[in-house]
Amino acid sequence: MAISNNNTENIENGLDFQPRFNADGLITAISQEADTGEILMVAFMNQQALDETIKTGNAVFYSRSRKKLWRKGEQSGHFQKVLDILVDCDQDCLILKVEVDQGQCHVGYKSCFYRTLDKNDPKKLRFNAEKVYDPKEAYGK
Amino acid sequence: MAISNNNTENIENGLDFQPRFNADGLITAISQEADTGEILMVAFMNQQALDETIKTGNAVFYSRSRKKLWRKGEQSGHFQKVLDILVDCDQDCLILKVEVDQGQCHVGYKSCFYRTLDKNDPKKLRFNAEKVYDPKEAYGK
């Protein structure tokens, strides 16, 4: 999204929090484990999800597929306790520094990023982690 | 984006790399410093940017504002050497594990995420880093 010059200085160098939601009213939010730096997941927030995250201290996203607030952990029990929220230069992306228990990804891994591109064949992936819980038990699938 | 049930198992648990570009032909890419875990920036790639990143080993993005490939470092000299590429469960987001020199953000900081929400006033930010280079020199502004 283009930023007018008048606002750029304030958005980039200022200390007012001015989250820039996209045309769908969403902002990208990355959950990163605070003590290890591991990126756990990437999702979206709308204004309400952001407000509730700040108010409750637990990560709340907006589910584009279900079109409603997604209170992470509500169903699985795997909450994300938010210690800090960082914002990037143009204020269209957030990092949530979180504390978690174990599995965060609905597939059963701690992080959603459990696969790495194969350097010998970039059409293929390799697993870089092992499942830490059984999603069938957590989600009753 | 909704995924049909037929494909979900393969996308989530398979080892075929099937990057899922959005309606604009873009996929989210997070640059993360490999040795520290620090998140440096979040941007987008189109298919061409991804192919060129894999081929050259240097991060290439797609600039939505300039509507063209953005070979990171071409102008500033701050390249990102890509050591690994990770993909998330639904294959609509990538992590680039990178090696960098110093300043990566065009504002002058190493990371774009140089501000943190103030816990006492969530409308305000505080700086969490100091500038590491002068963007006026790097970009000739």
UniProtKB/TrEMBL annotation, chains A, B:
It is found in: Cytoplasm. Pathway: Amino-acid biosynthesis; L-histidine biosynthesis; L-histidine from 5-phospho-alpha-D-ribose 1-diphosphate: step 3/9; Amino-acid biosynthesis; L-histidine biosynthesis; L-histidine from 5-phospho-alpha-D-ribose 1-diphosphate: step 2/9. Mg(2+) binds at residues 88, 90, 92. GO terms for cellular component: cytoplasm. Pfam families: PRA-CH. Keywords: Amino-acid biosynthesis, Cytoplasm, Histidine biosynthesis, Hydrolase, Magnesium, Metal-binding, Zinc. Its EC number is 3.5.4.19. Its cofactor is Mg(2+); Zn(2+). Homodimer. This is Phosphoribosyl-AMP cyclohydrolase. It comes from Limihaloglobus sulfuriphilus. The gene is hisI.
